[in-house]
UniProtKB/TrEMBL annotation:
The keyword Mitochondrion applies. The chain crosses the membrane at residues 12-32. Signal peptide: none annotated. One of its GO terms (cellular component) is mitochondrial inner membrane. This is NADH dehydrogenase [ubiquinone] 1 alpha subcomplex subunit 1. It comes from the Eukaryota. Belongs to the complex I NDUFA1 subunit family.
Amino acid sequence: MGVPFEALIPYGIIIGMFGLTGAGLSAVNWYANDGKKARWNRDLWDRVMMERDLRLTGSWRGQSSNPEAPKGFELNHPWKLEKRMY
Protein backbone atom coordinates (compact mmCIF):
# COMPACT_ATOMS: atom_id res chain seq x y z
CA MET A 1 0.00 0.00 0.00
CA GLY A 2 1.52 3.29 -1.15
CA VAL A 3 1.43 6.69 0.44
CA PRO A 4 -1.28 8.90 -1.03
CA PHE A 5 0.02 12.04 -2.65
CA GLU A 6 -2.20 14.18 -0.43
CA ALA A 7 0.07 13.31 2.49
CA LEU A 8 3.07 14.84 0.69
CA ILE A 9 1.51 18.29 0.26
CA PRO A 10 2.06 19.38 3.92
CA TYR A 11 5.67 18.22 3.73
CA GLY A 12 6.17 20.32 0.61
CA ILE A 13 4.68 23.34 2.36
CA ILE A 14 6.92 22.83 5.40
CA ILE A 15 10.06 22.47 3.27
CA GLY A 16 9.04 25.52 1.23
CA MET A 17 8.53 27.63 4.33
CA PHE A 18 11.94 26.61 5.73
CA GLY A 19 13.51 27.53 2.40
CA LEU A 20 11.68 30.86 2.26
CA THR A 21 12.69 31.69 5.84
CA GLY A 22 16.34 30.84 5.15
CA ALA A 23 16.39 32.90 1.95
CA GLY A 24 14.76 35.84 3.73
CA LEU A 25 17.23 35.70 6.61
CA SER A 26 20.13 35.53 4.16
CA ALA A 27 18.79 38.54 2.23
CA VAL A 28 18.35 40.61 5.40
CA ASN A 29 21.88 39.69 6.56
CA TRP A 30 23.32 40.61 3.14
CA TYR A 31 21.43 43.93 3.11
CA ALA A 32 22.47 44.80 6.68
CA ASN A 33 26.16 44.22 5.85
CA ASP A 34 26.17 46.30 2.64
CA GLY A 35 26.49 43.21 0.46
CA LYS A 36 29.52 41.82 2.30
CA LYS A 37 30.00 38.72 4.40
CA ALA A 38 28.96 39.03 8.03
CA ARG A 39 31.70 39.70 10.55
CA TRP A 40 32.23 37.20 13.33
CA ASN A 41 34.50 36.95 16.38
CA ARG A 42 34.76 40.72 16.76
CA ASP A 43 37.01 41.96 19.52
CA LEU A 44 37.42 45.47 20.93
CA TRP A 45 39.73 46.55 18.10
CA ASP A 46 37.19 45.52 15.46
CA ARG A 47 34.38 47.37 17.24
CA VAL A 48 36.52 50.53 17.51
CA MET A 49 37.38 50.33 13.82
CA MET A 50 33.72 49.78 12.93
CA GLU A 51 32.77 52.89 14.91
CA ARG A 52 35.51 54.86 13.11
CA ASP A 53 34.22 53.61 9.74
CA LEU A 54 30.71 54.67 10.75
CA ARG A 55 31.94 58.17 11.56
CA LEU A 56 33.99 58.38 8.34
CA THR A 57 31.56 56.92 5.82
CA GLY A 58 28.18 56.70 7.55
CA SER A 59 28.13 52.89 7.31
CA TRP A 60 29.36 50.18 9.70
CA ARG A 61 30.91 48.28 6.79
CA GLY A 62 32.02 51.22 4.64
CA GLN A 63 35.71 51.93 4.30
CA SER A 64 37.40 54.94 2.76
CA SER A 65 40.69 55.03 0.88
CA ASN A 66 40.84 58.81 1.16
CA PRO A 67 44.00 59.69 3.14
CA GLU A 68 42.39 62.81 4.59
CA ALA A 69 39.38 62.75 6.88
CA PRO A 70 36.28 64.61 5.74
CA LYS A 71 35.57 68.11 6.99
CA GLY A 72 34.13 68.06 10.50
CA PHE A 73 35.63 64.66 11.42
CA GLU A 74 37.80 66.23 14.14
CA LEU A 75 34.65 67.44 15.89
CA ASN A 76 32.95 64.05 15.60
CA HIS A 77 35.03 62.11 18.12
CA PRO A 78 33.99 58.91 19.90
CA TRP A 79 34.93 60.05 23.40
CA LYS A 80 31.96 59.82 25.68
CA LEU A 81 31.40 62.28 28.50
CA GLU A 82 32.32 60.94 31.90
CA LYS A 83 30.58 61.83 35.11
CA ARG A 84 33.14 63.12 37.60
CA MET A 85 32.79 61.89 41.18
CA TYR A 86 34.38 64.96 42.86
